[in-house]
C-alpha cells in the first residue's frame, strides 16, 4: 500500500516521502480500516521536526498521522463492537500512528462508528481536537454559566472548543485576528476579541477557566485574568509535575521541567489556582459520546482546506503556517 513515511528529523519537505509498504495485518482486538480521510494536526509536523523527541524517539522510517475516518474491511476474532463495512473514525494510539496511508489496523477500543451526518473528511477532522478538549474541560469541571477564555478560536482546537463549551452552557470568550472575528462569532462565542486591535487582558476579567492553546506568555498571563481559585488548562504550555510522571520522564528531565515552570508554580500559589497540562488520550467511548452531540447538530466540523493524498506535504506546510481556519484534512480515497 501507499504510505507517507518520516525518514529523519528536520524540515518537512526533505524528511518525508511516499513509499510502497506491506498492508498491516489485523490483530485479535483490532479492526483493519480502509482509510478515506486523515485529519492533520500540529503534532504531525512537530514530530517530523524533532520537537517531541525528548518524549518519544522515532525509529525511521516511521509512519505519520493520528486522525482517521474510513471503512472496516476486516476484524479480529475478539472484536464485537464493529462489523465489516462499518464507517468508523478514530484517533489512533500514540504508539501506532500511520493514518497518512491507505490502510491501518486500529485497536477496536479506540474507534467509534462515525456520526451519521458527517462525510469522511468531516469525521477525520475531529478526533484529536475533540478528545483533547473533552478531556481538558473534564479536568476543568466546566459547567453551565462558567466563564471560559478559549485562545485561538479560529484554529483546529478553538473551532471545536467554542462549540463544545457552548453545548455545556458556558459563557465563551475567544481571541482571533480581524478577518476571522465574524465567522468565529457565528460558532457561538459570546465575546470575540480581535487580538490585532485589542488587548484581551484589558477585556477579560474574573474568568473561571482559561483554555490555553498558545503557551508561553499566554500561559502565565492566564493567571492575571482568572478569578481567585480559577483554573488554567494548557495544551501548549509547561508540563506539570503529575503529567511529567505519567509520561515516564527521567528524573533529570523532570527536574529541568520543574525549573522551567517555577514562574507558574508561584502564580498558582498567589491565585490559589489550579493548573494542568493536558496530554490527550485516545478513546473510542468518548468518540461515541461525541457522535451523539454531532448528530444532534450541537457541533459542526469546521474544515478550512482538504488536500489530495499526493499533496500531503503541502497540507503539512499549510498547517505549519499557523493560520488555519478550522481543520486541514487529507482525502486519501474519493
Ligand atoms: N497537549 C495536547 O494533547 C494537544 C492536543 C492538540 C493540540 N495541541 C497543541 O495545541 C496548539 C493548537 O492546536 P490547533 O490544532 O488549534 O492549531 P492550529 O489549527 O494550527 O491553530 C491555528 C490558529 O491559531 C490562531 N492563532 C495564532 N496565533 C494566535 C494568537 N496570538 N492569538 C489568537 N489566535 C492565534 C490562528 O488564528 P489567526 O490566523 O486569526 O491568528 C489560527 O486560526 C498546538 O500547539 C498543538 O500542538 C496539544
Commentary on this structure:
The chain is an alpha/beta fold and about 325 residues long. It folds into 2 domains: about 160 residues, Quinone Oxidoreductase, Chain A, domain 1, CATH 3.90.180; about 150 residues, Rossmann fold (3-Layer(aba) Sandwich). Helices cover about 30% and strands about 25% of the residues. It has 13 helices and 16 strands. The strands form 3 sheets. Strands 3, 5, 6, 7, 8, 15 and 16 form a 7-stranded mixed sheet that branches. It has a 6-stranded parallel sheet with strand order 11-10-9-12-13-14, sandwiched between helices. α6 links the parallel β10 and β11. α4 packs across α5. The model has no long low-confidence stretch (mean pLDDT about 95). The structure holds NADP nicotinamide-adenine-dinucleotide phosphate (NAP).
Task: Give the topology, please.
Blueprint: E1 2-6, H1 12-15, E2 16-20, E3 30-40, H2 42-48, E4 62-63, E5 67-75, E6 87-91, E7 103-107, E8 111-113, H3 120-124, H4 127-140, E9 147-150, H5 156-167, E10 171-176, H6 181-186, E11 191-194, H7 200-203, E12 207-212, H8 217-225, E13 226-234, H9 241-246, H10 251-260, H11 262-271, E14 274-277, H12 284-295, E15 303-308, H13 312-320, E16 327-331
Parallel strand pairs: 9-10, 9-12, 10-11, 12-13, 13-14, 15-16
Antiparallel strand pairs: 1-2, 1-4, 3-5, 3-7, 3-16, 5-6, 6-8
Bound molecules: NADP nicotinamide-adenine-dinucleotide phosphate.
NADP nicotinamide-adenine-dinucleotide phosphate binds at residues 41-43, 128-129, 132, 151-152, 154-158, 175-177, 180, 195, 213-214, 235-236, 278-280, 319, 322-325.
Amino acid at each position: 500500500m501507499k504510505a507517507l513515511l518520516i525518514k529523519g528529523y528536520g524540515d518537512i519537505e526533505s524528511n518525508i516521502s511516499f513509499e510502497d509498504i506491506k498492508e498491516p495485518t489485523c490483530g485479535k482486538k483490532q479492526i483493519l480500516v480502509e482509510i478515506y480521510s486523515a485529519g492533520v494536526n500540529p503534532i504531525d509536523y512537530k514530530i517530523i521536526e524533532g520537537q517531541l523527541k525528548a518524549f518519544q524517539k522515532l525509529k525511521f522510517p516511521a509512519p505519520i498521522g493520528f486522525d482517521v475516518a474510513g471503512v472496516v474491511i476486516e476484524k479480529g476474532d475478539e472484536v464485537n463492537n464493529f462489523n465489516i463495512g462499518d464507517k468508523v473514525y478514530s484517533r489512533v494510539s500514540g504508539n501506532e500512528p500511520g493514518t497518512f496511508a491507505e490502510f491501518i489496523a486500529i485497536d477496536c477500543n479506540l474507534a467509534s462508528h462515525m456520526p451519521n451526518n458527517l462525510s469522511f473528511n468531516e469525521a477525520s477532522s475531529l478526533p484529536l481536537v475533540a478528545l483533547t478538549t473533552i478531556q481538558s474541560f473534564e479536568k476543568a469541571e466546566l459547567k453551565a454559566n462558567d466563564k471560559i477564555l478559549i485562545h485561538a478560536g479560529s484554529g483546529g482546537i478553538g473551532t471545536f472548543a467554542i462549540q463544545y463549551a457552548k453545548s455545556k452552557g458556558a459563557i465563551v470568550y475567544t481571541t482571533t485576528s480581524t478577518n476571522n472575528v465574524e465567522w468565529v462569532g457565528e460558532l457561538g462565542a459570546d465575546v470575540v476579541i480581535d487580538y490585532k486591535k485589542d488587548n484581551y487582558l484589558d477585556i477579560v476579567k474574573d474568568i473561571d477557566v482559561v483554555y490555553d492553546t498558545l503557551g508561553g506568555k499566554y500561559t502565565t498571563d492566564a493567571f492575571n485574568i482568572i478569578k481567585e481559585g480559577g483554573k488554567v488548562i494548557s495544551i501548549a504550555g509547561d508540563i506539570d509535575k503529575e503529567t511529567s510522571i505519567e509520561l515516564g520522564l527521567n528524573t533529570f528531565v523532570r527536574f529541568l521541567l520543574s525549573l522551567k515552570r517555577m514562574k507558574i508554580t508561584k502564580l498558582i500559589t498567589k491565585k490559589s489556582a489550579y493548573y494542568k497540562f493536558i496530554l490527550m488520550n485516545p478513546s473510542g467511548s468518548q468518540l461515541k459520546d461525541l457522535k451523539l452531540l454531532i448528530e444532534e447538530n450541537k457541533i459542526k466540523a469546521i474544515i478550512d482546506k482538504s488536500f489530495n493524498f499526493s499533496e500531503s506535504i503541502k497540507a503539512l506546510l499549510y498547517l505549519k503556517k499557523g493560520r488555519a481556519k478550522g481543520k486541514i484534512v487529507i482525502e486519501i480515497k474519493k
